[in-house]
Amino acid sequence: MPVLMTEVMKKSLLTAASCITLAACSPVMEATRPEPVDVKQFVIGQSRVNILAEIGNPVATTKDGDNSCDIYKLYTKGPGAVGKGVIAAGEVVADVFTLGPKTNT
Question: What is the model's pTM?
Fold first, then answer.
């Protein structure tokens, strides 16, 4: 019987560790979400070098005759730094309360 109890304890520990790891994931993802880019700051004909300096390298570049076209994947909407911090803090609080002590009723 002690062997069976050890297996049950291992499974319980693994389940608890998995829950804690998954719960910790959402605040980290929120905190590392990229800042939104205001596309209104760019104008047609703006220097490619200036755009690269502002938003980085494109995900792809295509040719259209003699012209090249850079393709970007941008995050254009969402909260700023303060908003992300508030959301991440709220997720931490929610994670703690949902993993709180069990009561038998």
Answer: 0.48
